[in-house]
Amino acid sequence: MQDVPSDVESRILEEMRLCAIESHDEAWAEGRFAGIDVEILAETAIATALCALQDEAGEEAASDMLNRMRDRLTAGEFDSTARHH
Fold first, then answer.
1. DSSP 8-state secondary structure symbol assigned to residue 81
2. CB–CB of 45/24 below 8 Å?
3. For residues 67 and 73, what is the distance between their CA atoms, to the nearest angstrom?
4. What residue ranges do the domains of the chain occupy?
5. How does pLDDT run across 20-36, given as a tens digit for each residue?
6. Could you tell me which of 74, 77, 54 has the C-alpha nearest to residue 64?
7. Is the Cα torsion angle 75, 37, 16, 57 positive or negative in sign?
8. What is the pLDDT of residue 80?
9. What one-character DSSP code corresponds to residue 3?
10. How confident is the model at residue 84 (pLDDT cuts 50, 70, 90)?
11. How sure is the predictor about 4, in pLDDT bands with cuts at 50, 70 and 90?
């Protein structure tokens, strides 16, 4: 039987996700204001995240996350015209 997060746990995770989005959006805006190209910001953000995830959870976890992100990309989830937080 798989553990299902409680409502409280789900709300905590959602709040953490929203906080992370806000923090990332602020850092992204600062980088763009400083004139840093979008591709450079994106590559460094992804590389930083992968390093941290691999250090904490291992190479397989980082690879799994990349696969999930690729699936989401090909499904159109990151289309800026339809982006929802």
1. G
2. yes
3. 10
4. 8-76
5. 999 999 999 999 999 99
6. 54
7. positive
8. 85
9. -
10. low
11. low
Buried b (16+ CB within 10 A) or exposed e, 21-47: eeeeeeeeeebeeeeeeeeebeeeeee
HEC per residue, 5-62? CCHHHHHHHHHHHHHHHHHHHHHHHHHHHCCCCHHHHHHHHHHHHHHHHHHHHCHHHH
Identify the sign of the CA torsion 75, 66, 82, 12.
positive
Instruction: Tell me which amino acid residue 78 is.
Output: F
Cβ(17)–Cβ(24) under 8 Å? no
